[in-house]
Amino acid sequence: MTLLPSEEARGGPSQIGVDALVVGLGPAGSTALRLLSEAGISSLGIDRASFPRNKPCGGGVSARTLPLLPPHLFEEIPNQVTSGISLTYRGGVSQNQDFGRPIAYQVRRDQFDFALIQAAVGSGARVMTGVGEVSAQREGEGFVVMAGDRTIRTRALFAADGATSRVLRDLDPDSCRRIRETPSLRPFTSAEGFGDLHHPIDARHVAIDLGLVTGGYAWSFPKKDSAWGLGVAGFLKPLVDPRGEFSRYLESREADIDAGGVLTWPLPNFRSVHHGKVPGLFLLGDAGGIVDPFLGEGIYYAILSATRAVEALTGVLSRAGHGGQDAVAQASRDYARYVMKSLWPDFSQGARLAQVLYRFPSLFFRIAQRHPGFLVLYASILTGKHDYRSFSRAVILRALSLLLPGRPPLSGPAL
User: Fold this and answer.
1) Which domain range does residue 387 map to?
2) Number of domains making up the chain
């Protein structure tokens, strides 16, 4: 299947009006666009890039993402199923555990993102790619977005344009200024690329190294074509030299990077983004700071946030019985309330866990060596059995079982 451009992308009218505009067509934007189209809402998706586009990325789609994806998506694109973890400390001897069921599906982002756009187009959605520079402003109770030489007017605006969102900078410049002026709110950093391992591990496992990266971890994720997605990220503070940290990890793995080279990416700090400030604006995925502060997982939360945002809009429209701007503003407030009441408390707990684990990585590694049940709990986050609050409670209960006599040993499945 090829990506079908909309009439506007083929040189149609320069003035476009829709009920919902999606800016950015990564996993969050493509999901929102597909769901809007399926709900019968007049919508358009735009992106500065042309697809498929290269994007070095870990590309791990956790098992908990599956219910949110289009049916049979993984039957259409290459993917490597991973069912275990290979944990190392500073490149040393690994602690391996296989859980007997998928915990993540490893993809290449060019293929995965393109498939999601195709699913949106297949649902009847309109897309414009390669649109050039994008800017946004308020107009009355709606928005005007300039996309290249086209002017798009919309009542609902879904910003899915990444951690350095132009939409957010245009519509909420105070928030962006606060991020620049407050070090604790600045994005974290990662360095990533594709490569080959001279001594590859079991391709059914994701490899995680603790201690080699300052305040974070390094990873090797297997891909279907025998290459590996390699990367490093810091979660206590931005890495001072992400490329240097990445080079050290490559040396420990005896890995060679392919011709695509190494790219660095910002990982948004969830505390930096305030949802609900602009009526009618829905901030999705990285643009909304919705990235796991413990594992750095972004794809699941991108797709989850898009799903909940569209559900908020369609829910209000079904109750209101009309599509007035008041309904759109109410939907954006409902979505912001979901983020603040459901996601942020869990992210806060995840950030507290990160403060402990990434400050004392050797301690966690020794615990995982002696008590594999902790590693099982770690993986249970990816399957959706635990969020960070329930994970923390389970860790406390299992730790008590080790300390109190007569309690069962720490073993058994937690996935």
Assistant:
1) 360-403
2) 3
